[in-house]
Structures are given as structure tokens and as C-alpha cells.
Amino acid sequence: MSEATASQPAQRGVAMLRRIDPAVAASFGCILLLLLVGSLYSRSFLSPDYLLQQLKVASFLGVIATGMMLVILLGQIDLSVPWVVTAGAMMACAAAAHGTTGAILAIPCGILCGAAIGLLNGIGVAYLRIPSMIITLATNAVAQGLMVAYTGGFAPQDSASKAMRYLATGNVVPGLSNAVLVWAIIGGAAIWLLSRTTFGRAIYAIGNRERAAYLSGIDTRRVTMLAFALSGALSAFGGVLLAGYASKAAQSMGDAYLLPSIAAVVLGGTHILGGRGSYLGTIAGVILITLLQSILSVMQISEAGRQLIYGAVIILMLLIYGRQKA
Amino acid sequence: MTEWRYWLAEQRGTLLAIGIFVAMFLIYATNHPAGFSANMVQTASNKATLLAFVAMAQAIVVITAGIDLSVGMILTLTNCLASWIVVGTATETALGVAGVLGTGLLCGMINGAIVIFGRLQPIVTTIATGAMYYGVALMLRPNPGGSVNETLADALTGRLFGVLPTSLVALAAAALLIWVPYSRSVIGRAAFATGSSEVAAYMSGAPIRAAKFAAYSLAGLLSAIGGLFLTFFSYTGEAAYASGNAYTLFSIAAVVLGGVSLMGGRGSAIGAIFGALAFRTIGDLLFVFDFDPLWQPLFQGIVLMLAVSIGAFGLLRVRNRLEWFG
Questions:
Q1: Disulfide check for B297: which of A145, A177, A252, B67 has CB 3.0–4.6 Å away?
Q2: What does the alpha-carbon distance between residue B70 and residue B224 come to, in Å, rounded to a whole number?
Q3: pLDDT digits (tens, 9 = 90+) for A256-270
Q4: What is the pLDDT of residues B243-268, one digit of tens each?
Q5: How far apart are CA B103 and CA B86, in angstroms?
Q6: In the A/B pair of chains, how many CB contacts fall below 8 A?
């Protein structure tokens, strides 16, 4: 990915064009198509206000999908997203209730809780060799149990700290929500991590063939564990942002993020069995899913129809460009 | 090695699941406040049967090295459908039952067709079709309601000869009439072969496509039987997203507890049934010991986590570190 040696900017441009993944191009094409369909329905779909609003909604999914992508690139999956998101939000709000110190520590506290659950996933997958689908399911159940026991099954009364609210809803740049900036920073970090660091390259290597990666001297178990911990931290951070957006945490607030995050990563051209995919595609997938959900709800289609179309569109798009080589 | 040793090695997972279940159930039964009675067994078996059918469905797909994340949604869909059409006279009811089972079969066939001919990954395919099935369920039952032929419902959830719970008999019948012939047929053997190594199965001329198609279709059918029983127990239809999802996730847990390898090629639906029964008993243990119901999710999660960690003991037997990577 980084072996472009062309000195001329023009040559570099051509080389970049050639390197574009057809799946990424197709998903960006689908975004344009969706906008076109939307604009036929109502003019306001192309207004900057609407688009910026969608970008803000997408940034929560974007942060969560970043973590999911790291794990999917390894050829694993993280099903613990729903309650890690919720745990991150609840723990951050709980910390925020403890005066000034609590308010300062709220965000790190939420993220650390997520990282801890992620670490548990990572140890299970990397060192105990438990299939990721089942260990993340189990930690999800444990996280749910802890949160239910902690809150007594009710919506917690603590509200989000000022910093959390500012991070999710404030505007440093006029007109652009801070949540979008947060996603941009995390996205930039993810691109750097995946393409410029040994850790990122090791993730791709393990996703392609863990045995070969191990034989070439990569500590595959440590990399896998760290990737899961990162995924947990990012999910929890997504929960912190969501809590800031809604100004409090709620039971099962993360349920709506598991399937869309997987779908976004896969629609963005990342191979579900690992080893292949670019962050650019994930950005496209996240925006695609968010736009699709938004357009369906603006058209006032009932929840039933929305689910039906949502599923059908995902299958259709995958049939167009996500097929495995025979 | 003598013949029975091979048999023992093959059935180890199933026997372990039976062992776990018997142990759990003994603890449960001896500590039950009402004591060990036909009534208690009937209640316990009615609750466990639903999960057992879904777990059987999941096991059949998992054996082909696939996964079906739409089983819970097929259960929800058929539950909603049954609350409309399994009513009226004997003939109407019979037609209704046939219609419900046919719908489940159709859902499974759609999954199979997309996975085989669309060449999409089972995980994403069934996530998307699951969303579609849930959409249809929501169309059928926007609000919980409906009814069912109560004579039939009571007959199938009651007791045979005053002792044997009918739901258990139905479960055994499904295992005998569906699983046993299937696993002994050419298609069934091909399903095991495909799960072990698709390439090798292809080279030996096994009917891979037919096997996968049959597996997904049967999974749909078995989920529909589960949905039918859910209607018999609750007398209503409800498109509940959370419970559909829970059935899917629990089915994976039950399959793992039942000794079916998530890598495919090893295990049996009988094991999955006992895995499901054991999983349900674990959930009920807390009520017996009079814990606060708030702690139930946590307890279930921790037991699930310990159960899946049992598989990690296999690592102690590994002689070559490369075997870690399977």
C-alpha cells in the first residue's frame, strides 16, 4: 500500500487510481446513487445542513466500526459490541456523578472499561484459542449481567458530564459537529495504524494466514489480543459519545450498533474472513448505512418495511461486488 | 482401536453435553422447592424445547462450517405467522401448521440459495436475511396479539399419559425423523465432509451444494417448528427483536456446549439438543437458589464463559505450537 515510489505527482495520481479497490469505488458509487434517489424524493437531501447532520449521526457508528474493522481484518469477529457500548456509556456517566474529579475521569473511565472487556476477549481468542464468535458472545453476556446488576435493570439516573456532551454535540469549527472531528481523528489514526505501523501490517498478515505470520516472527497472539482490546476501547468510546449526545446512558442502547457495524465494514469491501480491506471502504460503508437508514425513515416507511429494504439492499450490494472468488 | 473406541471418540462432545446436562438437572431438581415432579419436568421441558429446536437448526448449519444468524428471526417470523393461521377447525389448523413449516423451509432455502449461488459469506448473508425476516414478522404483527388453536396447543404442551411432557416427545420425534435420516444419508455425510474440508469433499465428488442447501433448508424448517411451539406456549404472536436475537445467540452457545465444532465437520444435533437443555437449566438454577433475578444475566454469562473455556484445555495436549493455528 505504501510502496508508491513515483516522484511525479501526476504519476502518483495515476498509480493511486489504479490501486483503488473496486469494492470501495462501488460503495462510494452507491452513496451517490442513494443521494440521487433521496434528492428525487425531496430537495433537502442535498442541502449542506442535512448532509452534515448525517455525518454527525454516522460518526458514532464510524467510531464503533473502526474497532470492528480491526477485528474483522484479523479474520475474527466481535459480537460483544452491544453491551460494551452500553457499559462504556454507563460507566462514564457513573464516574461523572462523582464531583469534579469524576467529571474529569468520566471519559477515560468509560474507555478503560471497554478496553478491559476487549482485553478479556483478546486473551480468550489469542491465548486460549476460543473461537471469537463464542468468547465475545460470552463477554457480552457478562457485561450485560454486570450492567443489569449495577443499574437494577432501570435506566441509570446519572447524566453525562459536560466534556462528554461537548465532545458529541459541541462545535469547535462552526457548523461542524465535534463528533465528526472525533471520528476524523480516530479514522486518521486508524489509517496510519493500518498502513504505516508494524502492528497494522501484522494485522493484515495474521488475517491472511496466522501460521505464516507466526513463522515470520510476528507475535501473533499479542497482536490479536491488542486488536481486541482496541476494539473494546473504541466501542466503549462510541458509547461515551452516544451518552454525550443523548446526555445520559440507557439500557440496551448498544443493540442497534452490532449489525450495522459489521455491515458497514463488509459493505466497505473488507473481507469478512480477514486479511483484506481498507479504512476508506469502512468510511464509505458507514456513510452508506447511515444514509440508507436516514432515507428510509425520512420516506416514512414503517419499521417493518425499513428492516425488509435494509436487509435486501445489503444483500443486493454484496451480490454486486462482495462475492467470493469461486 | 476397536470399533467402540472410534464411536466414543466421535461422540465425545455429545456425551459431554449429556453429562453436563444431567449434572445441572440433578442439582436443579434436588433443590427445586416443589421437589422432583412431573409438573416441574413439564415446565422445564417446555421452556427448553424452544431453544433445543433452534440449537438443532444451528448445529446442522454449523456442521457444514457455515453459520445461520437468522434462526432467531425465522422463529419470530413463524411465531407471528402461526398466530394468524394456526386457528379454526382441524383441517384449517393442519393447513396452517403446514403453511408455517413451509414458510420456515422457504426462509432456509433463501439463505441456502444466497450462500451457495450468490457466493456470499454465511455470516453477513444471514444477518441481512434475518433483518428481512424480522421485517416480515413486524408486518404480520405490528402489535403483539393473535391466537392459536388452543386444543392443539394444550395437547402439545401438556403431558402424555400424565407423565411424559409432550414437548419432549416432539423434540425426540424431530431428532429421530429429521436428524437421524439426514445424518445417515449421502447428503448428510457430504455435509460433514464439506465442513471438514470443502476442497477435499469437492475432490471426492461429494454433492457439496446439495448438502449445504439441505442444511440451510432444514435449519429453516427446525426453526419454524420452534416458532410453532413458541406460539403454542404463549398463545400469541409477537415480533420481538430482542428475543429473536437472544435465540440466535443462545443457539450458538448451545451448539458449542453441545460439542459441535464451530470450525465445522464435527458434532451432532443430538449434542446440540442437550447443550440447549443444559443452557436453559443453568438459567433456571438461579431461581431455585432464590437469587435476586437481577443477577441472572451475570450468572448465565459467567457460566457460559467457563463452559466455552473448557475447550481451551485442548491446548495442553498440543505438541507443536503450529497446531495453535488449526
A1: A145
A2: 12
A3: 898 889 989 988 888
A4: 888 888 889 888 888 888 888 888 88
A5: 13
A6: 166
In a domain, A314, yes or no: yes
User: What average pLDDT does the segment B138-151 reach?
Assistant: 84
List chain A residues with CB under 8 Å of B295: 145, 149
Q: Which of B244, B262, B222, B270 is nearest to B21 (CA)?
A: B270
Residue B190 lies in a domain: yes
- Domain ranges, residue B78: 37-289+296-303
Look at residue B89 and tell me if it is in a domain.
yes
Domain-embedded: residue A91: yes
With an 8 Å Cβ cutoff, are A307 and B134 in contact?
A: yes
CA distances for B49 relative to A77, A287, B32, B144, B233, angstroms: 29, 42, 20, 22, 11
C-beta of residue A6 within 8 angstroms of C-beta of residue A19: no
Backbone angles phi, psi at A159, to 5 degrees: -115, 170
CA-based nearest residue to B298, from A128, A138, A94:
A138
Exposed e or buried b for every residue in B169-200, given b needs 16+ CB within 10 A?
A: ebbeebbeebbeebbeeebbbbbbbbbbebee
Q: Which of B127, B279, B309 to substitute to test the interface with A, most A CBs within 10 Å?
A: B127
Query: Domain count of chain A?
Result: 1
Measured between alpha carbons, how far is A77 from A125 in angstroms, rounded to an integer? Answer: 10
In a domain, A219, yes or no: yes
Which structural domain, as residue segments, surrounds residue A258?
53-321
* Banded pLDDT at A23 (limits 50, 70, 90): confident
**Is B27 part of a structural domain of the chain?**
no
Residue B293 burial (C-beta neighbours within 10 Å; 0-12, 13-18, 19+):
exposed
Give the total number of structural domains in chain B.
1
The mean pLDDT value for A77-106 works out to 89
Strand pairing of B164-165 and B159-160?
A: antiparallel
Who among B123, B129, B308 is closest to A138 (CB)? B308
Which residues are CB-neighbours of B22 under 8 A, at least 6 positions away? none
